[in-house]
Design the sequence.
């Protein structure tokens, strides 16, 4: 019986460790996004509104819903440039990826499409998030 108890504890610990590593990588990418685009201390109403919008969108800035393997087009563009396992601590690489993705179009098939960066400069999320996915 003791063996099963210890084995269960070990398996649970290992499982939690893997989940924590995954969350940490996403947190680093989010922190760099916030550092680059969200002006926390600004008194400008536009900056405050954007900060609130990003906060409400949560993970949906890059993802679609609760499944963290599903990414919206902005998240897909970043995923092509970043690996969550190897790049999580490379702040410079994350910033370069954010800068590169700013120039990509929301709809690459439409030559008149706005870029992700243009949307962000207008105070919009890089990719529209459906209202039902916004956190309250």
Sequence:
């Amino acid at each position: 019986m003791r063996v099963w108890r210890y084995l269960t504890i070990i398996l649970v610990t290992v499982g939690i460790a893997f989940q924590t590593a995954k969350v940490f990588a996403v947190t680093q990418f989010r922190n760099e996004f916030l550092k680059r685009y969200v002006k926390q201390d600004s008194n400008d109403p536009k900056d405050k509104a954007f900060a609130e919008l990003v906060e409400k969108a949560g993970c949906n800035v890059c993802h679609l819903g609760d499944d963290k393997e599903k990414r919206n087009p902005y998240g897909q563009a970043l995923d092509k440039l970043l690996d969550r396992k190897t790049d999580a601590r490379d702040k410079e690489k994350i910033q370069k990826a954010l800068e590169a993705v700013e120039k990509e179009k929301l709809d690459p098939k439409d030559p008149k499409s706005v870029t992700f960066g243009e949307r962000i400069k207008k105070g919009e999320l890089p990719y529209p998030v459906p209202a039902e996915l916004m956190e309250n």
About this structure: The longest strand covers residues 67-71.
